[in-house]
Design brief:
Blueprint lengths: L4 H21 L7 E5 L2 E4 H17 L4 E4 L3 E3 L6 E9 L1 H5 L6 E8 L2 E9 L4 E6 L3 E4 L2 E2 L12 E4 L9 H11 L5 E3 L4 H9 L5 E4 L4 H13 L3 E3 L7 H4 L2 E4 L1 H12 L2
Parallel strand pairs: 3-5, 11-12, 11-13
Antiparallel strand pairs: 1-2, 3-4, 5-6, 6-7, 7-8, 8-9, 9-10, 13-15, 14-15
Length: 262
């Protein structure tokens, strides 16, 4: 696709960070790891990827604000725009040598996500979307799946780790959902769960306790691919609530009713 200057800047930054991460991924056993919390680790590779992305994006757009998983939030001279970045989504997969992780970059304008890039560097899959321009993977236009029946559908989620408070709710979700569908997957990278819904690989995705950088780029991908996305609590804001339910049009109503238990 022919993207805007901002989208091209995002793609360039994602590729540079992705190439650096791939080099470290090949030597994952040698990475120096420090604990950031129970079950959640930050690596030298993670911090370096964010540095590279921030350097490129802020050099290109020095007035924009910034929020990144590792370096936090910085307001910009332009209060209407900010970058939202997860330099390495799927850190635990990365540390275990599992090739399912991604660089995620989004651009927010006046509170709305207007562009998103998710780069699966290990598989060389670049997912991109821009408001009004559709969603793409490399040079292929993306559409959400066309499945219309729950018994044919597979759904993705993230199982809370380290006894997070939403574990009981997620277990209850699965108990209600599994008898109604063809299966569920838990692959450990929220950004790629969104991307796979946009690509029609998953029929839907839901999760709780997410951060803004986990969701921002994925949301515009799903919506530009023709999908629907809402917070778990009906009427709530997705990014504020840290929760999401998304799928294609035909499955959204029955899927959301099961997750919301209504």
């Amino acid at each position: 696709m022919q993207g805007s200057a901002n989208l091209n800047l995002m793609i360039k930054a994602a590729r540079k960070a992705g190439r650096a991460l791939v080099k470290d991924f090949r030597e994952v056993e040698n990475l120096q790891v420090s604990a950031k919390g129970p079950g959640d680790f930050v690596t030298k590779a993670d911090r370096e990827a964010e540095r590279l992305i921030k350097e490129d994006l802020m050099e290109g757009r020095p007035t924009y604000g910034w929020v990144g998983e590792e370096t936090g939030s910085t307001p910009g001279a332009d209060p209407t725009r900010r970058w939202i970045v997860d330099p390495l989504d799927g850190t635990t997969n990365f540390l275990h040598g599992l090739p399912h992780w991604a660089v995620s970059i989004a651009l927010e304008h006046k509170g709305e996500i207007v562009a998103g890039v998710i780069f699966d560097a290990a598989k060389d899959e670049m997912f991109v979307a821009e408001k009004g321009a559709g969603a793409w993977m490399n040079d292929r236009r993306l559409r959400v799946s066309g499945r219309r029946h729950m018994h044919e559908a597979i759904f993705a989620t993230g199982i809370p780790f380290s006894a997070r408070r939403t574990l009981p709710a997620t277990v209850a979700d699965l108990a209600r959902l599994m008898p109604a569908c063809a299966g569920s997957r838990q692959w450990g990278a929220a950004s790629l769960d969104f991307a796979y819904v946009a690509a029609g690989r998953f029929d839907g995705y839901w999760e709780r306790e997410l951060q803004v950088w986990d969701m921002a780029a994925g949301l515009i991908l799903v919506r530009e691919a023709g999908g629907f996305a809402e917070a778990v609590r009906e009427g709530a804001d997705i990014l504020d609530s840290g929760t999401v339910i998304c799928s294609n049009d035909a499955l959204f109503d029955p899927f959301s009713k099961i997750i919301r238990n209504v």
